[in-house]
Design a protein that fits this description.
Layout (H helix, E strand, L loop, with lengths): L5 H14 L4 E5 L2 H12 L3 E7 L6 E6 L12 E3 L8 E2 L13 E6 L2 E4 H7 L3 E7 L1
Antiparallel strand pairs: 1-3, 2-3, 4-8, 5-8, 6-7, 6-8
Length: 132
Amino acid sequence: MSMTDPIADFLTRIRNGIMARKVAVECPRSNVKLRLAEILKDEGFLDAVSNSNDSVQGSISVTLRYDNRHNNAITGIKRISKPGQRRYVGAAELPKVRNGLGVAILSTSKGLMTDRKARELGVGGEVLCEVW
């Protein structure tokens, strides 16, 4: 059975892993999900991202980040642009998540990037998700 929204599935696996206090979460691999996980790691929301090509599609293993008190680095994660309702923004109306404490991840003509990087480059695109 084909999946309608693989990015939402990826974000939901991360959200469920956080709620269950898991150390790591696995999901099927795709280039978009791998880049999304790498951005979350670079922003400090994840500890590690590993890619394995053991099956036909491969898988991504994401290690969630917790502090000394077992509080997670991700307090909220939300899918913005959905297959039934895409959300595109120009360079002038890029969203600020939680007054700059969170990050919006966009799909632009120059690849996946954060809202800060898109502002720096002056490009807009499709808002995939927000993480705070």
